[in-house]
Amino acid sequence: MATRLPGTDVVIVGLGAAGGVAALPLADAGLDVVGLEAGGRLTRRDFAPDELRNNMRGWPFSVQKCAQEVPTLRRSRSDTAVQGTGHPMMNAVGGTTLHYWAQSWRLNPWDFRVVSATTERYGSSRIPEGSTVEDWPFGYEELEPYYDRVEHEIGVSGQAGNVNGRPDPRGNPFEGARTREYPMPALRWTGFLDRMASSARSLGWQPFPGPAAINSRPYQGRSGCMYHGFCNRGGCHVDAKNSPAVTTIPRAEATGRLTVVTHAHVRRVETDNQGKVTGVTYVQGREEFFQPARFVLLASYTYENVRLLLMSKARAYPIGLSNNHAQVGRHYLSHHQGAGVTALFPSDLHAWYGLPAQGVAVDDWADDNFDHGALDFIGGGNLWVYSDRRPISAAGMNTFGLAPTWGSAWKAFVRDNADRTNSAYIQKTTLPYDSNYMDLDPIVTDPLGDPVVRITAEYKQNELAVADFLQDKMERWYREAGAIKVTRGGLGGQMGVSTHAYGGTRMGDNAETNVVNRYGLSHEVPNLGILGASVMGTSGARNPTLTAQALAWRTAAHLASNWRSIVE
Amino acid sequence: MADTKPQLISRRSLLRSAGAVGAAAAAGAKGSPAATASSHESQLTPTGEQTSENKQPRYIFEQLTADEAELLEAIADQLIPEDDLGPGAVAAGAVTYIDRALGGALSESRDAYHSGLAAFDRYCRSSRDAPFLELSHIDQVSVLIDVETGAATGASTGFTGSSASFFSMLRSHVLQGTFGDPFYGGNQNFVGWDLIRYPGVRTSVWPRLQTQLEAGELSPNHRSAYDSEYFEKAVVRTATKGTYHGD
Question: How many domains does chain A have?
Fold first, then answer.
């Protein structure tokens, strides 16, 4: 029997990128908040510069809750799903933001209105067949103040390209107008990044430094980045990576309104006979607790948000909470970020120190920034060249057919070339389709006996065409910079378990095709809200975290200022 | 595909003729440029006695048997040989690394090592009529090519799954043991990092230091992450297998 705890105003399930941000405006508004987090607390002393532990052994993901609930995967309904080999997310106060790359992009205006913009420019026939893509219920302008707020609350470094409509050639010419500069200048570049930027300009492209939730100088009493090279899958040893764990969560705790409960494994959202949620049941150690709350905010990442809803059946919600329109799990997509391009250069790139958020971006081939009239796809990709290298992976480099993979000739090759490769990260427009979705696996469970998520999804023709197009552009860029060899990854097939997983509880005005409304509140359950990329209906061509955080702040602010009408 | 450049003297035959003296003496006999590696190397000599110039206690294998360790060293010595460019996987302590890891983070691979090395040995005996340690350099290379390409797969060998997947696992662990942080028992005397010219683990890299690196003026600092007391030594009990973008 679960122990019933004292009630609270709001319970947040998951204190990661989204939940960790939402806690602050709620606490600031005087609401009592309980934050339930499946992981524990880590400090900067936990983040050793240790490639073997962090990158080879996957320390951030090991020995934790989500490692035990890895989704099963299949390409289509007729296939048998097989459980994935690992879960990329981290359970901890701060969640995956502890070890993420911290690229903190705003979506571009086109991403909010893919359907109407495509229809206006090319005709409605250009929306790929089978896609369930919709315009967002609002445009970029609506989210701009929340982007701005989060950028300043957590700290984002970058170079503005458009402040109040005034273009700045140092920044991204395609970004939506922002009301002010970034709170910090962009992270520094290396000689190689300077060279790549210069080569992009010779091609007539417009390179710029990308935005990062990493201090380029001391900010809010925390250190600037030390560029030590272990940021990728590593936490920051000087707290320069602006996770909610070192920004919004401690600030919310300082109000006295946020109580953080660690190692809390939430299993069900409970519902009364009127269809309102009453709180959540969680397991901590071997004990079960019921945390009553007047409002429940799910912020446990795309897979777990969907799983919790589908497992929380009730009389009012017989096929899952907030699922009477059978939309939970629909419109799933994992960002097409594979199909990379790797280059070999004839001299050292000096990339041993740096971080993946330190780099040069090109947006000329993203979104609808170029004419698609004669092309067979919509959307595009962001080209990202960054500085990131560690010794084991460097020694394990692709030999480009120039050397064997072991022996003395290999040894001579890696001695010369370990610091001469670069792999581009190309994030591409990925659309939702009717045949790509999540549900509960009929067979595979976690150790508590709860079913894991089953993902049925694959990249379609539009994604493959974008990938092919972008690889051409990237190869051209590397060649322009002097690369002597260039290789390409496969164009993509099945969608895997991803750090960029979107949909499943999509946001939109139409309750027939969306789970939450324009404020992130359930269309069906009066006191349930959902945070994270699971509410996003389009991916854009860039990392989702800042958008998920801006949406989380917006939902929390809406909830706080309409508290009485929503809850009473 | 693989390196077939013959060595004048097979390292293994040298080792064998040196008998119990072990890898350290062999390295010395070949005039290893990393003389310091030799004094460290007795730790990973699985069965040999200590040489007089070695004061450190030899490493005692805990997961691998003496025969398995000897075979694994011979394989590692082919994958990353000691040669004119300097020490290889054996001097780095890659097999020490693997043995230690099999007792912890790589414990799930223990059976794959026991059965894989046994299958490897069976394959050598059935296809080349001799154990790997007694084969010539060229024959050792050709066996490894068979294993790497999956050609050694088959009922007679007993590889569970493809021999290529065994090779791939072995190669990745030899790389970890040669180029990983010395804290884990490999990369002894930083021979792996020196080979690929990695300038070292640092906790702060100011612009001036990056400038020095780009000017070719930065010397390796030869430090382990855990030389600093600042960092907690978290242990991974079982490694995850997936590969993901890190963001």
Answer: 1
